[in-house]
């Protein structure tokens, strides 16, 4: 019996995956066989499971996200709206420099992030430190996300005073939304 299971392990696995997709349920995309819907992507970004620059949308997803955001723009955050921003990476760099926008408040989508990275990598001397932050230094939201997902241990995060205050403010405004690892950032900042 054990040898039969070993022999047909892959077949059984595939049948199980197909069956779970047919039956449905929340976790049927565990193999990545089905693209997430635009709505699912927006929800994942809102919950902090995805960042806009990590998501390369298909045309169908892009159209769905655009339709949802255009229907009720007030319902969505700048982080979610970044998914369908039509500004080029170059336009964002120019606007950031001209208007002296805090780079930590700028959310980039997949294409913008790649365009900016290419521009800065090709001519680093042409860009300011604030512009370079767009692709190098994570925002406090990104830090919270990475720590919360276990991508970075809290002890490895070195925060400046402004970041410490901002993270403390964010966590204290909704403490039930953050896990113990994220809350460690506050206790580490008191040292």
List the topology elements.
Blueprint lengths: L1 H6 L1 H15 L14 H10 L11 H13 L6 H4 L7 H11 L10 H13 L6 H5 L6 H9 L12 H13 L6 H10 L2
Helix pairs in contact: 3-4, 6-7, 9-11, 10-11
Give a short overview:
By secondary structure, the chain is mainly alpha-helical.
Number of helices: 11
Order of helices and strands: HHHHHHHHHHH
User: What is the distance, rounded to the nearest whole angstrom, between the alpha carbons of the first and last residues?
Assistant: 59 Å
Q: Major β-sheet, in short? A: none
Helix content: 55-70%
Shape: globular
Give average pLDDT, whole number: 84
Q: Please state the structural category.
A: mainly alpha
Beta percentage is under 5%
How many domains make up the 3D coordinates?
A: 3
Radius of gyration: 21 Å
Extended strand count: 0
Low-confidence stretches: 25-29
How does this structure look, described?
It is built from eleven helices and no strands. By secondary structure, the chain is an all-alpha fold. It has three domains: 37-84, no CATH class; 87-137, no CATH class; 138-191, no CATH class. The chain starts with a helix and ends with a helix.
Write a concise keyword list for the protein shown above.
191 residues, mainly alpha, 3 domains
């Amino acid at each position: 019996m054990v040898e039969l299971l070993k022999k047909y392990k892959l077949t059984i696995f595939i049948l199980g995956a197909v069956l779970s997709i047919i039956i449905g349920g929340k976790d049927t995309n565990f193999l990545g066989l089905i693209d997430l819907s635009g709505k699912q992507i927006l929800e994942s970004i809102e919950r902090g499971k995805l960042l806009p620059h990590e998501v390369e949308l298909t045309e169908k997803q892009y159209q769905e996200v655009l339709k949802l955001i255009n229907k009720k723009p007030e319902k969505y955050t700048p982080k979610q709206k970044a998914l369908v921003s039509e500004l080029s990476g170059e336009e964002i760099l120019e606007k950031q420099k001209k208007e002296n926008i805090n780079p930590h408040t700028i959310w980039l989508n997949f294409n913008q992030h790649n365009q900016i990275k290419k521009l800065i990598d090709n001519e680093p001397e042409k860009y300011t430190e604030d512009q370079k932050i767009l692709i190098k230094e994570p925002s406090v939201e990104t830090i919270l996300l990475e720590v919360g997902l276990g991508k970075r241990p809290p002890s490895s995060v070195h925060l400046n005073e402004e970041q410490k205050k901002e993270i403390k403010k964010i966590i204290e405004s909704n403490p039930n939304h953050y896990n113990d690892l994220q809350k460690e950032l506050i206790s580490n900042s008191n040292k």
